[in-house]
Amino acid sequence: MTQSVSTLVILGASGDLTSRLLLPAIGQLLTDQPERAFTLIGASSDALDDDTWRARVRESFATVEAKGAAVDRLLKETRYVEADATSAHDLQALLSGVEGVPALYFALPPAITAKACDALGTFDLPAGLTLALEKPFGTDRESAIRLNERLARLVPEDQIHRVDHFLGRSSVLNILGLRFANSILEPLWDGLHIQRVDILYDETLALEGRARYYDTAGALMDMIQSHLLQVMSVLGMEPPSTLGARDLRDAKGLVLRATRVWDDDPVTASRRARYAAGEIEGRKLPAYADEEGVDPSRQTETLAEVTLQIDTWRWKGVPFTLRSGKALGSRRREMVVTFAPAQHVPSGLTGTTEPAKLRLLFAPDALSLEVNINGTDDPFGLERASLTADFGPGALLAYGEVLEGILDGDPSLSVRADTAVECWRIVEPVLAAWREGRVPLEEYPAGSEGPDGWAGLG
Q1: pLDDT value for 138
Q2: d(CA 445, CA 51)
Q3: How far apart are CA 202 and CA 245, in angstroms?
Q4: What is the mean pLDDT of the chain?
Q5: What are the structural domain ranges in the chain?
Q6: Angle in degrees, CA 408, 402, 159, rounded to 5
Q7: If 0-12 CB within 10 Å is exposed, 13-18 middle and 19+ buried, where does residue 205 land?
Q8: What is the pLDDT of residues 121-147, one digit of tens each?
Q9: Which of 110, 178, 271, 431 has a CA between 20 and 30 Å from the CA of residue 142?
Q10: Is residue 13 over pLDDT 90?
């Protein structure tokens, strides 16, 4: 560990993101790495005193059973500053009171983050300042370019952390070890041996009070444009020389620059739907359009599916289908690699001849390799068998791994400027087709597996 940041300042410290995700991750990080020492400052426009702030931090730490000398030290020293994140005066005063090298974490809506960046550009910033911001990085390709230009005027790219907590998930990091440390697998990792790749993130959770954000985003922007494209880039990348930030992000960028909608036809390569009234695990749900805070005229989708192609030698002809949805009947969080079928099954063998499948599961992190084997009762009959392994939960929460990179000045797990723009470029044809009504907005009952007629994935 070579920590470069001395003080972590969270803008929007009174919000849900801070209490539910950031603070527990900090507590776990300090418990796991007790040699760490940094100052934590919470800042927002809410009127809180230091004692109230410390109580909130302590409460969040308790959810992960954070303990140890490093935790006690941070709890004793952390403080709160009432500040308007869009005010140059407040931000300058906040940063002038910071010791050592600071990092600013924008736990704020994107529009407020953009205004805060404008305010930061009006005065001299501390040397070494790191900026960390949450997705979405803009609302389309042009706004992502403008945001990058704002940020580039403030600090160098290596000091900008565009946070995508999926890139902190152990299951995503496990892809690198599985692919590149096993000579049995990597030679098969191409279009000659792989038939299709599906990346699924289906949830049983519904809107759960997130209408203010979700109704302006939808499943495509919330999950596919950001998280799932990043996962796809790790699955599809060429072997990097090292796992250093430059090599890893270069490899991901090459994949995304080569990615486009399947056959350049967003009408046939995408589908969308939203949930109608239904029931999940005994809980009755209203239709999405009737949820509090939802504007039905926006036609926001709660289930999105897009098929893409990667125009490289390795992936020629292989469809990558990304899907995410809410209020579905079963929770599926997995990457499924379907291998090509056997070229010839000898006569005399009967039973299943389904292609082999490799499943990499998110939370719980595990893998399963499904293959055909000879049956125990009839050696001429083929049966399906699964070889499984459990990766375990990992040492840190996803946000803990992200915060570790921010504190250590390692942007390996963050989204680079050009990558943020490419992700918008990839989905823009789909968004345009949806806005123009060329892809119908279908419906499915909450608690079902999706609209009738949708082919299953994985």
Answers
A1: 87
A2: 47
A3: 30
A4: 93
A5: 7-134, 167-393+410-445
A6: 50
A7: exposed
A8: 999 999 999 999 988 898 899 999 999
A9: 271
A10: yes
Residue 348 Ramachandran class (φ > 0 left, ψ -120 to 50 alpha, else beta)? left
CA distance 361 to 171: 7
Catalytic center residues: 227
User: Is residue 395 pLDDT above 90, yes or no?
Assistant: no
279 forms bridges with which residues in the sheet?
A: 284
In whole angstroms, give the CA distance from residue 78 to residue 104. 15
Identify which has the larger pLDDT, 80 or 398: 80
Could you tell me whether strands 320-325 and 194-202 are parallel, antiparallel, or unpaired per DSSP bridges? parallel
Task: Using the predicted structure, report yes or no on whether residue 22 has a pLDDT greater than 80.
Answer: yes
Structural contact between residues 419 and 160, judged by C-beta atoms closer than 8 angstroms: no
Which amino acid is it at 80? Y
Query: Three-state SS across 30-93?
Result: HHHCCCCCCEEEEEECCCCCHHHHHHHHHHHHHCCCCCCHHHHHHHHHCEEEECCCCCHHHHHH
Backbone angles phi, psi at 33, to 5 degrees: -130, 75
- Say which residues have a Cβ less than 8 Å from residue 343's Cβ, sequence separation at least 6: none
| Domain over 167-393+410-445 is classified CATH 3.30.360.10 | yes
Helix (H) or strand (E) holding 143: helix 141-152
pLDDT of 1: 57
- H or E element in which residue 115 lies: helix 110-120
Structure-token pair, residue 88:
């140059």
Cα–Cα distance, 189 to 67 (Å, whole number): 43
Q: What digits encode the pLDDT tens for the residues 270-294?
A: 999 999 999 998 999 999 999 999 9
- Round to whole Å and give the CA distance between 251 and 239: 8
* CATH architecture of the domain covering 7-134: 3-Layer(aba) Sandwich (3.40)
Topology agreement, domain 7-134 and domain 167-393+410-445:
no
Structural tokens at position 175: 């892809």
> Quick check: 154 pLDDT over 70?
yes
Tokens 């379907």 sit at which residue?
A: 338
What average pLDDT does the segment 38-63 reach? Answer: 96
Pairing of strands 194-202, 332-339: antiparallel
How many residues would you count in the chain? 458
State both tokens at 419.
């990558």
Handedness of CA 244, 249, 252, 258 (dihedral sign): negative
Report the pLDDT value the prediction gives residue 352, as an integer from 0 to 100: 87
Give residue 258's identity as a one-letter amino acid code.
A
